Task: structure prediction
Amino acid sequence: MYFVQILVNGILLGSVYALLGVGMTMIFGIVKLTNLAHGEFVVLGAYLSTVLAPMLGVDPVVTLIITVPLMFLSGFLLQYFFIGKAMKKGAEPALLVTFGLSIILQDAMLMIFSADAQHIVASYSMSTIKIGELEISVLHLVLFAISVVSISTLTLFLRSTHTGRAIRATADDSDAAALSGVNVNRVYAIAMGIAMASAAVAGLCVGMKWTYYPSSGGGYLLISFVVVVIGGMGSVPGTMIAGVLFGLAQVIGGANYGLLISYVMLLAVLVIKPKGIFGK
Amino acid sequence: MSDKRLQRPVRVLDSLPMLIVCIAVVSVLYAVCLLRIASNNAMRYMIQIFLYITMGQMWNLLSGFAGMTSLGQQLYIGLAGYSVAIATAKLHLTLGVGLVMSVAVSVVVALVLSLLLFRMEGMYFSIATWVVAEAFEKLFLSWKYVEQGSGLTIRVVPYPKIEEICAVSLTVCVMSIAVVYLLLRTRTGLGLTAMRDNLTAASAVGVNVFNHKLLVYVIAAAFTAVSAGIFFVNKGIVYPESGFGISWTVSMIFIVTIGGSGTVSGPITGAVIYVFLQELLAHYPGWSNIILGAITILVIFFLPKGIMGTLQEKLRFEIFSAKRFSFAKHK
Result:
């Protein structure tokens, strides 16, 4: 029974890690950019929900109605007018621009929100339900539901809409996509928008699960990296499986050894299959 | 080729007069260090500049010349800090032995890691280097012998005088510049830049990619370690977070980007600017990273080759050039 409990907790938590990775994998796979500011986007999403929930007097999950479109728009504009310009200069300048962006955001959030620990509290944060001998936290179930809904929506969007097909075509071969009439810069901007929107969702989830600080971004960035690289860059199913593996490592290893286990896991994957489990 | 500028020759400043200038500058710096001409405060800045030049030079060697953009050089900084601390506080050895130990440990770790890291290229390599550094941080956080998270004090008896630290830092710095410069002018240097520009093509024309990478990676680990060892003597204590933190890489990236990636003179300029900027920004707490970030972004957009890279291009000269001949002579 203990084993099942660990498995369930690992899978439920893993969905949050998968969510962290999804935004990163979009940018890697489609825009071919290493976005070092992704962690700060997640923290920004967390702060937006933290501020908005008491302001509107609603459950934190409801704030997504505002934060998701807001972050999507910011991501779109950021890529279209800013990062896209840097990408024309090459891969390394673009990487360094996102790096500059990450330290700017980090200190800006520090000034606006102070260095205090933050936590998003919902009415069900502490409650649990019992199924037989299994004890499951309601919060974990809510986070799992949010993750599954957002990742499935994204997968459906990529699979069956016109824009989704244009995005996948660009990911496969941006030159060929451009020749067939896809506006590649617009696709990149949409991809960054989706990445930031997913960061808003992930931010809400990590903010409800753990305490966070303006400086937490680096940690989330690293987790997203690990999840994305284990799963294979650009692969959404790979990211989900890697997220669950990562979640299991955290539950088994605890606070101290959990990360160490997942780092060793990552390095092992890189040695055996350098492009990730689902990598092409 | 209608652009007039392209037809003007590039002057490579590497002849005897340049050597004399370099020797003169270094001698003056030694004199300032050893004869205590500068105040203690000025010496402290000089030490910082020398050490940051060394670290910047090494990051530039990896990223700017060999195309191995590492986000994990802090691994060797942390290892060096702990080597010095263990040598002096636990084993009661001298500082010199501690520094030698830090280099030895870093070289061994670099050799072992190369087997793992060199299987990856591009951003996979960057991420893997960072993950390795983080993994070591977690390891040291839970390792009892090094006092886990509470840090390890460095006990150097007798404590070296500031002019000694200054002279040693200068020596390390000059050596690092000389090694990078001389390395780039050999056959190996040509192989490295070929690898950076196109790995497959370089390998096809007979560049032994693994050996070249290994050489650069080990040199970078050794020099980063020795400069970090000196750094931590000044600090007096090493924590897992201060040793293996990503902020070291932040500094290196800033120094190299501002100065000019892929030039030997770039990191020198970048380190001087970085140390003064840091001092200036200390008066505006909270703003320092915002300003550093904004400067990085502005430089990338408007001076993509960095200060020295842009100056050299506009004024058609090159100092510490990797080129073995000047085009001017062949005109």
Remarks:
- The radius of gyration of chain B is 20 Å.
- The first strand of chain B starts at residue 11 and ends at 13.
